[in-house]
Each structure stands twice: as C-alpha cells, then as structure tokens.
C-alpha cells in the first residue's frame, strides 16, 4: 500500500477524532471524516497496553494488509483505526471480518449522502 494512503500528521488525526463520527466495539474503534482526496487515507493508533513492540507491529501490519486487500471496497473517507487491548485475542480472519464490518457501515452512510 502506497504511503499516500496514510495519515501521519497529528493535527489531521486529531481533526478526524474530533469530528466524532465513529463505529466500534470492544476490539476496535474506527473514526472517519470526509476527505478531499480521491481515495481513502488511514492512520492506526495502538496503545502500549496492547503488548510488546512485536505484537503492536504485527497487528499494524495486519491492518495495513487488510486495507490494501480491500482498497477498492473502502469508501473515500479519512480513517483513524484505534486498536484496543482486547484485540490481541483475535485471529487474522476475525480482525479482517471485524474491520470490514465497521467499514461497511461507513459505506452505507456514504451512499445515503450521495442520494441526498
């Protein structure tokens, strides 16, 4: 996945979180905000309570792979994916299903916005 799909600046991440449009459960929270770019962008936030650096890096790699594999299906928003501590018990397939479930909720809102 190219670096143009990533959000790196703290002020952009804060603006997305302050927008307060989110979907989440006990494993992940995904915040979104409409973007001006022709494609989606995302940032991953994971706390130190999740585990050691190896575990944190592993789930970040997995999330980037999920976003890469499903790029054509993801609505054009800016996203901040917050990983919670309980997500460490999930397998890759469960993580993928959970993330896609939350992203599909944003797809529905995008379609309803286009109709009006």
Can you walk me through this structure?
The protein is α+β, with helices and mostly antiparallel strands. The chain has a single domain, classed as Ribosomal Protein S5, domain 2 (2-Layer Sandwich). It contains three helices and four strands. Strands 1-2-4-3 form a four-stranded mixed beta sheet, sandwiched between helices. Strand 3, helix 2 and strand 4 form a beta-alpha-beta unit.
Keyphrases for this structure?
116 residues, alpha+beta, Ribosomal Protein S5, domain 2, four-stranded mixed beta sheet
Uncertain runs:
none
Structural class: alpha+beta
Strand order of the largest sheet: 1-2-4-3
Rg for CA atoms: 14 Å
Order of helices and strands: HEEEHEH
| CATH architecture verdict | 2-Layer Sandwich
The top-level CATH class is: Alpha Beta
- Please give the alpha-carbon distance between the first and last residues: 32 Å
Helix content: 40-55%
> How many H/I helices?
3
Strand content: 15-25%
**Topology-level CATH name:** Ribosomal Protein S5, domain 2
How confident is the prediction overall: mean pLDDT?
A: 87
Total DSSP E strands:
4
């Amino acid at each position: 996945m190219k670096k143009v799909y990533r959000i790196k600046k703290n002020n952009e991440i804060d603006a997305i979180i302050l927008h307060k449009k989110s979907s989440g459960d006990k494993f992940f929270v995904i915040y979104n905000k409409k973007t001006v770019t022709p494609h989606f962008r995302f940032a991953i936030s994971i706390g130190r309570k999740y585990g050691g650096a190896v575990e944190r890096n592993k789930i970040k790699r997995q999330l980037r792979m999920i976003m890469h594999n499903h790029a054509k299906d993801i609505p054009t928003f800016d996203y901040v994916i917050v990983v919670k501590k309980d997500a460490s018990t999930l397998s890759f397939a469960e993580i993928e299903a959970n993330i896609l479930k939350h992203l599909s909720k944003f797809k529905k809102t995008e379609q309803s916005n286009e109709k009006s």
